[in-house]
Write a structure and sequence with these properties.
The protein has about 160 residues and is an alpha+beta fold. It contains four helices and four strands; from the N terminus they run E-E-H-H-E-E-H-H. The protein has helices at about 15-25, 30, 95-115, 135-145; strands spanning about 5-10, 10-15, 35-40, 45-55. The strands form two sheets. It has a two-stranded antiparallel ribbon. The chain has a two-stranded antiparallel ribbon with strand order 3-4. Strand 1 (about 5-10) and strand 2 form a beta hairpin. Helix 1 runs antiparallel to helix 3. The chain is globular and about 40 Å long. The termini are close together. It comes from Nitrosomonas ureae.
């Protein structure tokens, strides 16, 4: 049984659940303003999408506390910065994992409230860091043409 709709003549036709998936995908930037959504396709029983995380360093720590005191030279009192200490920044994690988890939770809640289906997603998901333009173009093309290849897709059941 297709969860999100069916492929008709190489085009995905969304059912109500597929429309919920589309809505949840579009809402990701509302919860994670640092992202831009790129190519995306809903298939009958899975999805493919590209999420671009803006303004992050590719490596290194981003959540840290600033130093508030300089080291003590000999017997002097500490020199204090003119900055009030900031608490550790808790809140929404900015990882792909947290984005995918939130996306999947929203859809799963809808299924549980509106259908007899309680398990929507496989346990894990596949992620890939796109490192260059050539890789981006190949992955974007794969996503765009996925509905036309549905009959030979390994997830076609």
């Amino acid at each position: 049984m297709p969860l999100f709709g069916e492929i008709v003549d190489g085009v995905m036709v969304l059912n109500t659940a597929g429309q919920i998936v589309e809505k949840c995908w579009g809402a990701i930037p509302e919860h994670f303003p640092q992202v831009t959504l790129d190519e995306f396709v809903i298939m009958p029983n899975h999805v493919h999408g590209i999420i671009i995380i803006n303004g992050t360093n590719p490596v290194g720590a981003n959540n840290y506390l600033p130093l508030h005191y300089l080291p003590l030279p000999s017997n002097e009192t500490p020199t204090q910065f003119n900055e009030t200490p900031r608490p550790l920044q808790h809140g929404t994690s900015r990882t792909i994992g947290s984005m995918v988890r939130g996306f999947r939770i929203g859809i799963t809640r809808w299924f549980r409230a509106n259908t007899d289906i309680h398990t929507v997603w496989q346990r894990n998901y596949y992620e890939h860091i796109i490192r260059n333009e050539d890789a981006y173009l190949k992955i974007a093309e794969y996503i765009q043409t996925n509905p036309q290849r549905w009959e030979t897709d390994t997830y076609h059941v």
